[in-house]
Description:
Oligomer: single chain
Order of helices and strands: HHEHEEHEHEHEEEEEHHHHEEEHEHHEH
CATH topology of the largest domain: Aspartate Aminotransferase, domain 2
Amino acid sequence: MNTSSLALLGGQPVIPGRDRQFSWPPITADTASAVAAQLARSVSIYDRSGVVEDLEDSLCSYHGSAHSVLTSSGTAALHSMYAACDLGPGDEVIVPAYTFFATVTPLLHLGATPVLADCDETGSLDPMDASRRITSRTKAIVVTHMWGLPADMTRLADLADRHGLMLLEDASHAHGAAINGRKVGTFGRAAAFSMNGPKPLSAGEGGFVLTDDDETYYRVLLHGQYNKRCRNEIPTTHPLYPFAVTGMGLKLRIHPLAAAIALDQLARLDTYLDARTTMAEVMCQELGKLPGIVAPTLAQGVRASWYGLPLIYQSEELDGLPVQRLHEAILAEGCHEADRPGSTCPLNLLPLFQNPQPLLPAFSGGLSYEPGDFPVAEALWRNTIKLPVWHREEDRALIDQYIDAIGKVIANYRDLLG
Length: 418
């Protein structure tokens, strides 16, 4: 007869029931009113006016940037950013091996060759590995701020400057994150953000591009906005103005109702992030004490957005207990939001980056990555258990339960061996 207290082995879970434990974004009465007001006002905006103008102005003010362009998704924002930076056939672009695949897939559609580089111990692009992959054809370096933890932008910016390369940011996880007061998304030529459902700044679906560079701004507009907007904003003397009516023929603009949601959320973003920071500090402090668990640590002056809290499992500290077994036990204790990332994984493990030709026959970059090519990223991904970071004081009790549940599993890990 098994007498273990672990729920996976017949004991009682720390957190009973199957209630939903985390929901994002926070939808308030003000959010609903903003959407209703926009619904009555307009459901289609063809230029930079109304809620589109209000949100873009607010994003520029918040980040201290000259230009922002709203898009239908983060993927669309990335596509427009890369196109605006003239990345295409013959160009190599150094990208993180560990990121969500949409960081890189637009490059395939533009014909540029993504060159994957390994990550550091935080999960973000490793400047040393990136430097080893620079060639005469390298045109840009792209960095993702994984889970809202800012990457090492000082070293990456220095690397880009020394080699005369564009530095571009995928800040889709990192709205409001900062390094010494400088917002993520303002370190390079341009940055792309996602605003889909669970992102720190959410529109339900949406995205945006930030840049201080006028030429990049005009080309972002031409890539996915066209006609009224391009005719109004691109100078008539600009060499590309004759293309203002058609642009590149792509419609990537945001829906006004999504913009209304995001504008409402932006007004409270810093309040939410401050609360997340408080909760994350408690979680990291307590969970970081447990054997087998490494919690994130932030350098002085770094502010994370805490899109997620990645715990790195070290099985050697628990006699080789497999991470799958640990995760099963944590879930059984009622921690339903504890997640092992799936599609956000080392890109060399995905068929699209091993052999893209069946889906993209025109792509001639010759990708042929294989499992094992990026050992740091693969080990980190395999051993990551990601938690949400709550923002409400009333969720503090649930946070304590998560800490207790994970602690219980680790205290009884020997019951899971064999």
